[in-house]
Amino acid sequence: xLHSYSPAGEAPEIFYNExxxxxxxxxxxxxxxxxxxxxxxxxxxxxxxxxxxxxxIGGPADLLVEAETTEQVSNLIAFxxxxxxxxxxxxxxxxxxxxxxGVRGVVLKLGAAFSRIKISGNIVTAxxxxxxxxxxxxxxxxxxxxxxxxxxIPGTLGGLVLMNGGSQRKGIGENIRRVWVVDSxxxxxxxxPVDCEFSxxxxxxxxxxDVVVKVELECPSGDIADIRHAMVSDLRERRRKxxxxxxxxxxxxxxxxxxxxxVGPPGKIIxxxxxxxxxxxxxxxxxxxxxxxxxxxxxxxxxxxxxxxQVRKSVAQNIGFELRCEVHxxxxxxxxxxxxxxxxx
Length: 345
Ligand SMILES: Cc1cc2nc3c(=O)[nH]c(=O)nc-3n(C[C@H](O)[C@H](O)[C@H](O)COP(=O)(O)OP(=O)(O)OC[C@H]3O[C@@H](n4cnc5c(N)ncnc54)[C@H](O)[C@@H]3O)c2cc1C
Fold this sequence. Notes:
Blueprint: E1 2-3, E2 14-15, H1 18-21, H2 26-36, E3 42-48, E4 60-67, H3 70-83, E5 87-90, E6 96-98, E7 103-110, E8 117-120, E9 123-127, H4 132-141, H5 157-163, E10 176-182, E11 188-191, H6 193-196, H7 205-208, E12 211-218, H8 224-241, H9 257-262, H10 266-272, E13 279-280, E14 283-285, E15 293-295, H11 301-319, E16 328-330, E17 336-338
Flavin-adenine dinucleotide binds near residues 155 and 159.
């Protein structure tokens, strides 16, 4: 049975399989009909990806599946692998640029069903769909430190782990003890931090093609008032520095340690190159923070990619530094790569 997408908590409007009849060619129709009859979760055909990312950009996926259990994730991966159908896993889409053509394949979303958190002593076990600010708040209330730097990151834990996300030059990898994944064959596995190879805003998970389903974190004990104070300061700083009302994807360009030392953070370099306010189509470099690109109306993925290319070219010419992207681009073929590499797809 297929559903039309509705935000968590609202009853979805139900479409039946005749929707598939209007969809695709015969072989594709057969595959999708087979897939939605399996136990993989809720299926949404032709789902607009702009609804699933903070940039509000992106065309339709052939099928978006919202899995509710690890078994459903395994079933889906095994199915698409056997038929060589592209599969893209997403969280809240706060670090993703979808193409205007969408994805010719299946997009897997881990959401509300993967939201359990358990705290026992210094160990926090949380599922991949957990909303990161909520995780940081619960840890704080339990007197656990170390996640303050994540309290304003608007994504899921799965996306955070894959990106080794964080702020103040920290990354979530520093607190990770174990990661439960479903591998690219559909088999559940448990990984150690060594397997994950965490480095600045990167992990081996980006290459392995695993789907993160659960994470175990170890957090040192701390004073609740101190932890709260650090979180409030972080959130206040973000409100002051980051554009909030216009759709964006956070920092577009990576700010590595070596870059900081050599030339400073990307926002400063882009500002010094005189690029604040530069526009291509409806994509604009924020006046408030030059490492943010805003979707000021109906920006297309090509607008954003062209603006990224222009910034990289100007910065390379001005200071001889090659900016790399933190934001990932999702091609219509379902390939996920740093957005500065998009032209090579
Ligand atoms: C306003 C704003 C501020 C931000 N500030 C920060 C910041 O301070 N620090 C920071 O690091 N980031 C920041 N970000 C970027 C983003 O929020 C993080 O990278 C976040 O961790 C991504 O989570 P997500 O659920 O949105 O993942 P998505 O954007 O949906 O996906 C990101 C990557 O993870 C993969 N992925 C997602 N879920 C899974 C899973 N379960 N298993 C395997 N792979 C998965 C996707 O394929 C993709 O490659 C910010 C974004 C915004 C919009």
